[in-house]
Task: inverse folding
């Protein structure tokens, strides 16, 4: 099967610093479900980052499962990306009104 025929995959991550020790998977899916996850992220102005290698690893986790320590570095880079976007929004760069921060999506 070539890459162009592989179904799209998506994983949503959430991290509540007040109650979570580490980020956890809040949604995962492929094909139509992945497209729905991505569309909901776009509708909520949640940043989307593409990382095909990371998605392969994260898509093996169950919903509400915490990210394993082996993936902390990779996931930290995703959250750093989100932090940079949040900072840009704060100083008035790209307008991301109504932005939800409870879920971060990777496709």
Result:
């Amino acid at each position: 099967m070539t890459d162009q025929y592989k179904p799209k995959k998506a994983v949503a991550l959430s991290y509540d610093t007040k109650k979570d020790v580490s980020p956890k998977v809040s949604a995962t899916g492929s094909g139509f479900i992945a497209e729905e996850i991505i569309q909901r992220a776009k509708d909520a102005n949640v940043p989307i980052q593409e990382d095909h290698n990371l998605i392969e690893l994260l898509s093996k986790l169950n919903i509400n499962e915490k990210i394993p320590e082996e993936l902390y570095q990779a996931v930290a880079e995703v959250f750093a990306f989100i932090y940079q976007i949040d900072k840009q929004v704060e100083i008035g760069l790209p307008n991301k009104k109504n932005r939800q921060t409870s879920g971060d999506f990777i496709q």
User: Anything to note?
Assistant: The mean pLDDT is 81. Residues 72-90 form the longest helix (19 residues).
